[in-house]
Amino acid sequence: MEQGLDESLLRAAVEQSYNAVVVTDPGLEGAGQRIRYVNAAFERMTGYTREELIGHTPKILQGAATDPAVLRTLRQRLAAGQGFEGSAINYRKDGRPYHVEWLISPVRDDSGRITAWLSIQRDVTHERELEQEARLLSTAVESSAASILITDTEGCIVYVNRGFEQITGYRRDEVLGETPAVLNSGEQSARFYRDLWTTLERGETFRGTFLNRNRSGALFYLEQSITPVRADQGQVVRYVATGKDITERVRMEEELKRAATTDALTGLANRLSFEQLLERDYERCRRYGGALSLLMFDLDHFKAVNDAHGHEAGDAVLQALAGLVLANVRTADTVARWGGEEFMVLLPETPLAAAGELAEKLRERVAAHRFPHGAPVTASFGVCALRDDDTCRTLVRRADEALYRAKHLGRDRVECLSR
């Protein structure tokens, strides 16, 4: 009675098992083992009914993608009376392939003779697909040209890809366990990093341009996004930083900006840039008060220099003049090429008298300077200071009037227009 109860429980347990179970006869000769029993899970896994499987060999489940090498190993193990653990691709009744894991054991009678084979099977198709996706993702991440860096919650680096190595020059083994501070150039403000951590602590993605320093010490720009990664329970467990090197783009943008605001010949501010700076300083004076003066000057008889020595010599004179003036003004002052041989100097926080003194000093320096072609060069200066009724346009016009007066009165002189 007890034995019958045990057999009943065993049959119910096998039938209701989540894992697929199949029992085959022991014969390996000819067509091989034939199926004697399958449970409900095996029916669900394969799509076949029990009646469709009983009496058939497991070949009914095999197809083009079933690996013959696995089957050979399986037969060799069974022929030796040993169990087998492995996996293969089988096919459902509707023709769809699935990945299956086998755990096959011999069933022996009291004399040790094999009377059947018990195979416990599990459909691992979804797991294999996830593994394949993970491999593809890993390959994509590893081969990406973008820099990818992962840190733990303490900020220690736990992973970098090849893109990171190529961009930064650091090998993986050199940065694992370190923090991203290894790239810190010291060129960015503390506020930038405060904003970074404030954003991350809110659980949001931080996006910014980092000015970093690579392994060789060179600066580079990295456009980077840093994202908190959360576990199922919601707590942050990792930070993932992805970035691309935009150094060349930044340099091109800076070059375009320089080209748009700088005179190509002299390296001074061009007329457009000067007008913008004048507008800025004008508005500052109107809002906060303070003095603002303007010098306008040009070279006397410059056409004669070009005619006598050629335009290349004339260009060399203009370049030398630009360097001379820059060497004699403050960093807060702006020197610009207004056009041709005409120049401007914008003098913030400078009253008319001080502006006139600077103009006279510049006039003397120009007259005393030995320019490339050797002939004497002089300049005439017009000076004015901002009045209450001035606009930017009228301020420039009055500087021009003062310059005209200096040239009309004999050149190589300074004229200050006080009214």
TrEMBL record:
PROSITE patterns associated with the record: GGDEF, PAC, PAS
Organism whose genome encodes this protein: Alkalilimnicola ehrlichii (strain ATCC BAA-1101 / DSM 17681 / MLHE-1)
Domain of life: Bacteria
Domain PAS: 6-57, 133-179
One Pfam match: PAS_9
Residue intervals of the GGDEF domain: 290-419
Listed name of the protein: Diguanylate cyclase with PAS/PAC sensor
Domain annotation PAC: ranges: 82-136, 204-258
SMART domains linked: GGDEF, PAC, PAS
CDD domains reported for this sequence: GGDEF (cd01949), PAS (cd00130)
InterPro entries the UniProt entry points to: DGC-Regulatory_Protein, GGDEF_dom, Nucleotide_cyclase, PAC, PAS, PAS-assoc_C, PAS-like_dom_sf, Rev_trsase/Diguanyl_cyclase
GO MF annotation terms: catalytic activity
Cofactor: Mg(2+)
